[in-house]
Write a structure and sequence with these properties.
globular, mainly alpha, about 0% strand, single chain
């Protein structure tokens, strides 16, 4: 089967007919996606000057420590999600606003890098005539995370582009916003899916599909 037929974007499990092999591949892809996203943010923040004594809170390369309940649920509902909040102290940066944005976007850029690796493997396997469902799903999941992170909604990276411009009293850097927005975002996508409304997907799908076709060759 051609890779474009294997690809499902967004990759959503059919809850009425779950295939064990696809479920396992999907879960592993999700764990890989959230791990590289979180570690990418932490690595960039550290490189730019946010050196924290408790580095174990950011660097542990254990996907289970990066799990966020709302972010995990969103993968099953909408095909994308996010890791647990990565602590970054912007005051440690020479240019707080700019470096914070760079640190947050390092996460989805890490997903794009992983997607590129998966795409290269898909290209090689296709040349030798082998179907590769594992890397096809991995590519799909990571591209969804990359593209959807540009939405200006917490906890997605896109929010870092706009909120530093707001007055401090409106800046959603506090715990309240980190607690409220993630489950609210999941709820919105649940409502959209139950009502078969694909406004967001219709807008971003062409981008994800275009990147998929480009990376998979």
């Amino acid at each position: 089967m051609p890779v474009d037929q294997l690809a499902q974007i967004p990759f959503l499990l059919d809850l009425g007919k779950i295939e064990v092999d696809k479920l396992i591949i999907f879960i592993l892809s999700v764990l890989a996606a959230i791990t590289v996203n979180a570690e990418g943010q932490a690595a960039m923040a550290t490189t730019l000057g946010d050196i924290q004594k408790e580095s174990k809170d950011r660097f542990h390369f254990n996907p289970l420590f990066h799990l966020d309940i709302s972010g995990l649920l969103c993968f099953f509902v909408a095909g994308f999600g996010w890791p647990r909040h990565v602590p970054i102290e912007a005051n440690n940066f020479k240019h707080p606003s700019v470096y914070l944005i760079l640190s947050r976007f390092a996460g989805p850029l890490a997903n794009l890098l992983l997607a590129g690796i998966a795409g290269s493997i898909i290209w090689v396997t296709r040349v030798i005539g082998v179907e590769d469902q594992v890397f096809t799903i991995l590519l799909s999941v990571n591209l969804m995370v990359f593209v959807f992170n540009f939405l200006p909604i917490p906890p997605l990276a896109g929010a870092s582009l706009f909120f530093p411009l707001l007055p401090k009293k409106m800046n959603p850097g506090g715990r309240l916003v980190r607690r409220v927005f993630p489950p609210l975002l999941v709820l919105v996508f649940i409502i959209l899916r139950l009502n078969h409304i694909d406004i967001v997907n219709d807008a971003l799908y062409p981008v994800v599909r275009g990147l998929f076709d480009f990376l998979a060759g």
